[in-house]
Amino acid sequence: MSTYRDLALPRALGARAAATPGGSARATVLRTVSARERRSHLTAPRVPTVGIDIGGTKVMAGVVDADGRILEQIKTETPDKSKSAKVVEDTITELVLDLSDRHDVHAVGIGAAGWVDADRSRVLFAPHLAWRNEPLRDSLQARLAVPVMVDNDANTAAWAEWRFGAGRGEDHLVMITLGTGIGGAILEDGQVKRGKYGVAGEFGHMQVVPGGHRCPCGNRGCWEQYSSGNALVREARELAAADSPVAYNIIERVKGSVGDITGPLITELAREGDAMCIELFQDIGQWLGVGIANLAAALDPSCFVVGGGVSAADDLLIGPAREAFRRHLTGRGYRPEARIARAQLGPEAGMVGAADLARLVARRFRRANRRRLERYEKYERYAQAIRNGGVTGRSTRPPQEP
Ligand SMILES: [Zn+2]
Q: What is the pLDDT of residue 27?
């Protein structure tokens, strides 16, 4: 990273270009930037890699091949917030070692719910974990002895949807993950846009209602206070606690204990046709559409992919979101409208994306080694056939000697 940045300075560039007569400045930059930084998903080695998704409750790990297929998947509980950073590293290491018993591990990608710096080496802050400015990449790389990639979980999920899911073929994509809060990511021309300090895409804390609901971030009226799993549950519990007649059905389902009302229960009831639950989804769907219209004004992507647990409600949520989006889009009627699609990869998206991003830093030499081995075996078979006198005129050229 630093090499590239230094080179990007015009003065350094000029000096280099002058030192290499006949070579353009661009060629000089390309030559000097390391292969790892130039690598894109098109040139990354097609090796299986391990993806790890560290969420608030579960750590999911899986071996994923170059086509996004999960070859094996395991999971464990997320260590408690009170545990030290080392305990989280131990958990990750154990999962990787477990998988490496049965698979070749060429690289490890980590999608963490938290802020990751622009170099993607440190986790600046993670709300569910003890990480504070934690040099996660380097410590894990030292322990696992394979290349490690660290990114924000919304970025890895967006990457997966762009490579293998609802956003395939889109060169301007914005992902919105509706979980307990709102996560987000921006992808442009096959690259995740992370911002200068690595924390772009925190759409959940855009203010949509001045002086609105208090948000744990410290501000009021954040988008995720109106359009998220927490918003859904908060509204349902409020209605149930007030003993509203519209909430009788849900009160009966939880046998009066309002604290037992959860997002999945509201989704289930809405699917069964419960009027209050459907209305709650319409509410958060509308707020979703309003926020998406704001994002379209700022970023103008061709596609919004909506993922996360709340998106399981599908058209109950996306339908109202599309309507509100059309009503609030600036310049409506005079501009092409972005597509709003539901994510396709489900809860594994973050893990699959982390694994695929890890392929960008995966080691190539193992593949070269394997090829050398394959060539050797082929040559051995050929030599064996000659020794047995079984080579006929049809097999023309002997395999290349390893
Ligand atoms: Zn907030």
A: 54
Distance 197 CA to ligand 1 centre (A): 19
Residues 6+ apart with CB under 8 A from 256: none
316 within a domain of the structure (yes/no): yes
Mean pLDDT, rounded, of the chain: 86
- Residue 323 sits in the same domain as residue 285: yes
Domain count, the chain: 2
9 lies in a domain? Answer: no
Whether residues 220 and 315 share a domain: the answer is yes
**Ligand 1 centroid – CA 204 distance (Å):** 7
The CA 386 to ligand 1 mean position distance, Å, reads: 73
Provide the whole-model pTM.
0.79
Are 297 and 192 in a shared domain? yes
How confident is the model over 143-172, as pLDDT tens digits?
988 999 999 999 999 999 999 999 999 999
Kindly state whether residue 244 falls inside one of the protein's structural domains. Answer: yes
Q: For 16, phi and psi rounded to 5 degrees?
A: -65, -45
pLDDT at 21 over 70: no
Q: Which domain holds residue 220?
A: 169-344
* Same-domain status, 19 and 151: yes
Burial 142-161 (b: 16+ CB within 10 A, else e): eebebbbbbbbbbbbbbbbb
| 220 C-alpha to ligand 1 centroid (Å) | 7
312: CA distance to ligand 1 center in Å? 23
Is 402 inside any structural domain? no
CATH code for the domain in which residue 222 is found? 3.30.420.40
CA 400 to chain centre: 42
Find the mean pLDDT for residues 367-393: 71
Find the 22 Cα to ligand 1 centroid distance in Å. Answer: 54
- Distance in angstroms (rounded) separating the CA atoms of residues 52 and 100: 13
The mean-pLDDT minimum among 245-254, 307-316, 339-348, 363-372 falls in: 363-372
CA of 225 to the centre of ligand 1 (A): 7
pLDDT digits (tens, 9 = 90+) for 26-59: 555 444 445 444 567 787 888 899 999 998 888 9
Helix and strand numbers (H, E) in the chain are: 14, 13
